[in-house]
What we know:
It is a single chain. It contains 4 helices and 7 strands; from the N terminus they run E-H-H-E-E-E-H-E-H-E-E. Helix content is 29%, strand content 37%. It is an alpha+beta fold. It has a single domain (2-160), classed as 3-Layer(aba) Sandwich (Aminopeptidase). Helix 1 crosses helix 2 (36-43). The protein is globular and about 40 Å long. Strands 1-2-3-4-5-7-6 form a 7-stranded mixed beta sheet.
Amino acid sequence: MLIREFTEGDWPRVWEIVAEVVRAGDTFAYDPAMTAEQAYDTWVERPPGRTVVAVEGDRLLGSAKMGPNRPGPGSHVATASFMVAADARGRGVGGALCRDALGWARGHGYAGMQFNAVAETNRWAVELYRRLGFEIVGTVPGAFAHPSLGRVGLHVMYCAF
Length: 161
């Protein structure tokens, strides 16, 4: 598996993954009815941010976006998001993308990385992030409308560098 910079030619395959994840409605607080154009504007980061893809040969397995969590006085803390194709999950793609984002953020002098909205029911992601050094610093009760479980909490997670 190779993680490389996103190119415009990757968008159709990235959009397939984004659409699949967003329409499932169980991990991301994005509108399930979002269009490809809206998704592009949300997912593809402009500088100083970065968007990458994980590929294996010609196959696109997942994508990540990263950049400052907030502008101005909050710009010293990074954030990132990850999406993996359903048929590529459980193969270490998400972990590789997260390690790449952490390395990028450290290399660019960020003080840490914050995830603003990790659904508490996304246990695989929560456990992965904990293994990679993140801690839950707070949970907003009922902030995420899960399609089958109802309202569940959203964790704010942080990893100091």
